[in-house]
Amino acid sequence: MTNKLLSHLAGMPLTWLLATLLVYRASSAVYQRAGMHPLLHPVALSTAVLGTAVWIAGVPYHVYFEGARFIHLLLGPVTVALALPLYEQLKQVRQNWRSVFFGTLAGSLASVLTAMPLASLLGASRESVLSMAAKSVTMPIAIALTEELGGSASLTSALVMLTGILGSAIAMAVLRRTGMTDPAACGLAIGVAAHGIGTSKALQLGSEMGAFAGLGMSVAGVFTAILVPALLKMGGWP
Amino acid sequence: MLDALTTLIFFQILGEATVYLLSIPVPGPVAGMLLLLLFLSKRGGADEKLAYSCKRLLRHMTLLFIPSAVGITLHLQRLRAEWFPLLAALVVSTVASILITAAVVHWLRHDK
């Protein structure tokens, strides 16, 4: 009887909507308790738990997504809402606009122009290479960009998480070696390379660095979303 | 909250319409965000209600990534086959973007 009930519920999209909400709540609590360790990021933790649950229940992903898409649908509006923090950030750094503009532009281009050709050269499939383009970008923009390019949003999500974790772990070690340690250069570099996860790391190191990281993240997202489709079109890729 | 959501969806649709009409290959939500940014700078900021609701919405932004992320279960075979090119490209490009961003910023701020 219990088995029958469980498999009945597992077939209902709403069950997976509820599961996503509950697992997110629990993961966020764990993340806070663990002092916001990047490896326990709510997205990574929730994905592991829900992925396992879907697999144990023997439910195809599309059944899960049918329920969870009500959450997914809000990604667009939330991307639009990023205009508000960006507006505030841009107001703060008028005097630094040159280094912010060119630093972020160069960093975003460096990220895309190394990631895509290298993955392709080493034998990654076309869909993977397209999903690689947005890996340094804040998640809502990354998912929108990958959907635009025809890559896999799921693969991009995983790559974005990995990049954030890796970037925030190594950024300061890399930067210290070069002797470039002023908060503007470091903050922008962490934000451009490692989006939100890097930004929360930068905030722990100082509020000025955190502010620059947040700015780098937003501006890099905009540059990447505008430049990558145009670059690919010019290269005759799609 | 409802007013803010309506505004955001309106700007997203405006963005989708703009990229469609001008046939520029930019994701619609990003175009919508830039249009809202333009609107905010024309008006000199957001009204309190919109600012408050957006802040609350953005606080739970990570929740919205989970449905796509769970789809990684569909790609396990691909990851097993392609883990090396993906990981190598990811590491190299992360280091490259950290170094190049910092170098350009450092250069612009110190040698004027």
Question: What does this protein structure show overall?
Answer:
The complex is a heterodimer of chains A (238) and B (112). With 238 residues, chain A is mainly α. Helix content of chain A is 82%, strand content 0%. Chain A has helices spanning 2-10, 13-33, 42-57, 61-72, 75-81, 83-92, 97-121, 126-132, 139-149, 153-178, 183-205, 207-234. The longest helix of chain A has 28 residues, at 207-234. Chain A starts with a helix and ends with a helix. In chain A, 53% of the residues are buried. With 112 residues, chain B is mainly alpha-helical. Chain B has five helices and no strands. The radius of gyration of chain B is 20 Å and the shape is extended. The model of chain B has no long low-confidence stretch (mean pLDDT 93). At the A-B interface, α2, α3, α4, α5 and α6 of A face α1, α2, α3, α4 and α5 of B.
SSE blueprint and pairings:
The complex is a heterodimer of chains A (238) and B (112).
Chain A: H1 2-10, H2 13-33, H3 42-57, H4 61-72, H5 75-81, H6 83-92, H7 97-121, H8 126-132, H9 139-149, H10 153-178, H11 183-205, H12 207-234
Chain B: H1 2-21, H2 28-43, H3 48-59, H4 66-70, H5 76-110
Helix pairs in contact in B: 1-2, 1-3
Please tally the β strands of chain A and state the result: 0
Oligomer: heterodimer
Please compute the radius of gyration of chain A using only Cα atoms.
19 Å
Query: Which sequence of SSEs, written as H and E, runs from N to C of chain B?
Result: HHHHH
Distance between the termini of chain B: 47 Å
**What share of residues are in beta strands of chain B?**
under 5%
Range of helix content of chain A = over 70%
Average predicted local confidence, pLDDT of chain A: 93
